[in-house]
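Sorry, explain these tokens?

___
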Amino acid sequence: MEPDETGLLPVPVSALEHYIYCPRQCALIHVEQVFEENIWTLRGRRVHDKAHDGPTETQNGVRVERGLPLWSERLGLTGMADVVEFDGDVPFPVEYKHGKRKEGLFNDVQLCAQALCLEEMLGVEVGRGAIYHHSSRRRRVVEFTPELRALTEKTVADVREMLTKQEVPPPVNDERCEECSLWDACLPEREHLPKQEELYTAILPSP
């Protein structure tokens, strides 16, 4: 990946969610180009494909755009919104997730990045958006506070630094690994096994 005409290395909006959740996962996908499917990624793909499908429509006076391309020249972001609802000229991004709500800000940061792109593209302030959890069929409204905006912009810079340096952080080997599709590529437990020289030291007698 090369810098664009602004001189910034482009950062995919989706990479921000990966980075906040697990920097190593982000690096394996966006630096090493590793991606493996499991039941969770397949379900997520199906939910996203369903959200993207279909024409522009109007529901109760609200225009609904699906699969809307996004970009920010200021931040060097590129991506796509699952759904953007327009009540008049004000956009309201909606990100679809297949599972139930999880603790953490990784989904909120991804959604906030979409809002920052929409603000630059359309020249209007985007104050709120929503995460739609497919398993519960419910929305969770996200306010784009100054703190969330600052965290999002910092994450963009952190991901860009990682992509520029082509760094892959060490594995964490915690509860985040249990449902990760990249378990076999990451090998989180291997990092915590005794190193070969430590095994030799334990087995061989002292001189």
User: Anything to note?
Assistant: The domain at 11-203 is CATH 3.90.320.10 (Lambda Exonuclease; Chain A). Confidence is low (pLDDT under 50) at residues 192-204.
